[in-house]
Write a structure and sequence with these properties.
Blueprint (H helix, E strand, L loop, with lengths): L6 H10 L2 H5 L6 E2 L5 E3 L11 E4 L4 E4 L5 E3 H9 L3 H12 L13 H24 L6 H9 L4 H6 L3 E3 L5 H8 L4 H5 L4 E4 L2 E4 L4 E7 L5 E8 L9 E3 L12 E2 L1 H11 L1 E5 L2 H10 L4 E4 L6 H11 L7 E4 L5 H9 L11 E3 L8 H8 L1 H9 L2 E2 H10 L7 H17 L5 H13 L3 H18 L75 H15 L6 H9 L5 H17 L7 H8 L7 H9 L7 H33 L6 H22 L2
Parallel strand pairs: 13-14, 13-15, 15-16
Antiparallel strand pairs: 1-2, 2-3, 3-4, 4-5, 6-9, 7-8, 9-10, 10-11, 12-14, 16-17
Length: about 675
């Protein structure tokens, strides 16, 4: 490892470098008196130039924001490069050899080889760009035009064309004095029995630049059907090009990122171009790999991660792969956690497609309507479950709890738990208990965190089964078998492998029925309603029969009983009388394991002495049942409403609001309010 650059060499580089030439790569300067130049300050917004450069002094100063320094400080601020790297770049620029303390200088041969590779890439980039405007590049020109990119856009981003053939670029670089040994190291060529040949042939080319703007590699897109290669082909790993350390567009986006404290991560070269042209100039893309730890290091340099205001916005797809890609990005370090967002176009369009279909404003709006990463993960997980059923909501809660538990900032967990409570219609305390349990489970497993993560982490991520799930999406209500012909858990549930799952028809004989706990309020209310319709059906007023039939039951065993009562009444007619015939009709619609429960309900004493008291009791019980049913429907719809984005789904949002109002009117009418 190289040591410190000697002080005298730093002074020499500073003295030999013309600060005006360096600054003019970033700022337009005009004469401002003898030996002085001025322009608009690159460090703050201003309309009148207050940024002054004195070449003879080797310094700059802004009278607006008070920034000042020498050429080294200027480049460090503009390119966010470390001191040593900045000095080395300036030394290479003027051809000065540096000397080092504590370990000596970098290998001169290595330094020279790197510069030769950079030179070769520069020449190649110019070659590709010139070829884009030839007749042979018609397919490339058509590709760009169909995606809304004109010649000015192509020139801005250095887009080019690799002509068809085996040695066009090879001969061009040989003519510029590069040896085959040097060209092998660039990654721009493959080697066969006859020697080197062009790696990129008949393809649209994007130059991939380092932070400082040097071309270090290329990305190439297939244009012709007879091209047997992959759709996108990048430069392989070389001395210059390390895909895990490269972000396409960072050379253009670095200043906007540093200024706005926001970076937008997209998935492709055309998406970067589309975003920048639409005004989202902070967009960058990875090059053939997932956004990982090394990319995070690059981003931090521009976001100044010592503040809480930085934002990272992902535009990954909303599918499981996109979710995992977004979550994986910050597994290594969650200091970004509160400022990480996901922007997903509802119809699945990427930024390039969105700009083409709806214009620049739509691309900006996509980023403006970003969703916090953890909210995105929670919503994506919830979609995997049937949240119209109680059991589905419970499964969703158990799957989401590890995601909330993953949040290292303890002040954020209660907020997300409350959000999750609203989306699922489950009490916040219950959600918090599930989160605490998930955190403890992760600690016992030794993972150090809970929630979504790479395979093998022992965590549960979006798109994967939640704790206790059977690995498949929750089935729609009524499509899954009951538990032992109607067990004591809420309806809509499924037994886990090895449990007593299976429909009555699949059973090998009567099994014991697991009944709901009669002390539980909902269970008790449903049981009392069943006792009334089984024992005194003739005392139930006609309107209340309609209420009973429309009201579903929470527990599976009660729902089976409810359905049998409804079927028996439809069979016998509306004016049914209590007694043996009525119970026999109901029994005929029940699976055998529930016959004993029917008998139990039919003989339980009702708390009434006279017929009128019995009628009042029946009305009161059924009123309470229907009110509970209405409140449950309201809770379900409110949870659905909370999960919606009113701007993206206005019609559904308004419909749910109307349905909530109708349910409230029904409840008031029932209660005589």
């Amino acid at each position: 490892m190289a040591g410190l650059i000697k002080r005298e060499d730093i002074d020499e580089v500073r003295a030999r470098t013309d600060i005006r030439e360096v600054v003019e790569q970033y700022v337009t300067l005009k004469p401002a008196g003898i030996g002085s130049y001025k322009g608009l300050c690159p460090f703050h917004d201003e309309r009148s130039p207050s940024f002054h450069v004195r070449p003879q002094m080797g310094t700059y100063h802004c009278f607006g924001c008070d920034e000042s320094g020498d050429v080294i400080a200027f480049l460090m601020e503009m390119d966010h490069t470390p001191f040593t790297e900045t000095v080395e770049r300036l030394a290479a620029r003027i051809g000065y050899e540096l000397h080092y303390e504590q370990g000596g200088a970098p290998n001169r041969e290595e330094v020279g080889r790197r510069q030769r590779l950079l030179d070769a890439h520069k020449v190649a980039a110019e070659f590709f760009q010139r070829n884009l405007y030839t007749r042979q590049a018609a397919a490339a020109q058509k590709f760009l035009g169909e995606r809304g990119f004109d010649q000015e856009a192509a020139r801005t981003y250095g887009v080019g064309y690799a002509p068809q053939g085996w040695s066009h670029l090879l001969q061009h670089l040989r003519n510029h004095g590069f040896t085959d040994q040097e060209l092998k190291l660039t990654g721009m060529f493959s080697e066969g029995n006859r020697g080197l040949y062009d790696r990129f042939r008949g393809r649209l080319i994007w130059p991939i630049r380092a932070v400082a703007g040097e071309v270090i590699g290329f990305g190439a897109r297939k244009l012709y059907d007879d091209d047997q290669g992959p759709k996108y082909l990048n430069t392989p790993e070389t001395q210059l090009y390390k895909k895990s350390q490269v972000l396409y567009g960072i050379d253009l986006a670095k200043r906007p990122i540093a200024k706005s404290k926001q970076v937008v991560v997209v998935e492709g070269y055309t998406d970067v171009m589309a975003c920048h042209l639409a005004g989202v100039t902070t967009a960058v893309a990875t090059c053939g790999t997932a956004f990982g730890a090394e990319h995070i290091k690059i981003v931090r340099r521009f976001l100044s991660d010592d503040s809480a205001g930085g934002e990272v916005v992902f535009t990954f797809d909303g599918d499981a792969a996109g979710q995992k890609a977004a979550l994986r990005a910050f597994q290594e370090d969650q200091r970004f956690v509160a400022q990480t967002y996901v922007a997903v176009e509802p119809h699945g369009m990427d930024p390039c497609e969105l700009r083409l279909a709806r214009g620049d404003v739509a691309v900006r709006d996509l980023v403006d309507t970003r969703t916090p990463l953890f909210e995105f993960a929670l919503r994506a997980t919830i979609k995997e479950y049937d949240v119209d059923s109680l059991e589905g909501r419970l499964r969703a809660m158990r799957a989401c709890a590890p995601i909330v538990a993953q949040i290292r900032d303890p002040s954020l967990r209660p907020a997300y738990a409350r959000e999750l409570s609203g989306w699922l219609g489950i009490e916040t305390d219950e959600v918090m208990r599930a989160v605490s349990a998930a955190a403890k489970t992760a600690q016992r497993a030794g993972s150090g965190h809970a929630g979504p993560g790479p395979a093998g982490s022992g965590s549960t991520g979006p798109g994967s089964p939640g704790p206790g799930a059977d690995g498949a999406r929750s089935r729609q209500r009524g499509q899954e078998p009951g538990r032992g012909a109607g067990g004591g858990e809420p309806r809509g549930s499924q037994g886990a492998p090895g449990d007593r799952g299976g429909s009555p028809e699949e059973s090998q004989g009567p099994r014991p029925v697991e009944l709901p706990d009669p002390r539980e309020p909902v269970s008790r209310m449903e049981r009392e309603a069943l006792e009334v319709v089984l024992q005194v059906p003739d005392l139930v007023p006609h309107p209340y029969w309609g209420h009973f039939e429309s009201a579903g039951m929470t527990y599976r065993v009660h729902q089976v009983m409810h359905d049998a009562v409804v079927a028996a009444r439809a069979e016998l007619g509306e004016q049914v009388q209590g007694g043996r015939a009525w119970l026999e009709a109901v029994r005929n619609h029940l699976p055998e394991p529930l016959h004993g429960y029917l008998a139990q309900l039919s003989v339980t004493p009702l708390p009434a002495a006279t017929e009128q008291q019995m009628r009042n009791y029946a009305v009161g019980v059924l009123t309470s049942l229907v009110e509970m049913h209405i409140n449950r429907e309201k809770s379900d719809k409110l949870a659905h409403l909370n999960r919606l984005n009113a701007q993206r789904e206005p019609d559904l949002y308004q419909r749910l609001n109307r349905e909530l109002l109708d349910l409230e009117l029904q409840r008031r009418s029932l209660m005589g309010v």
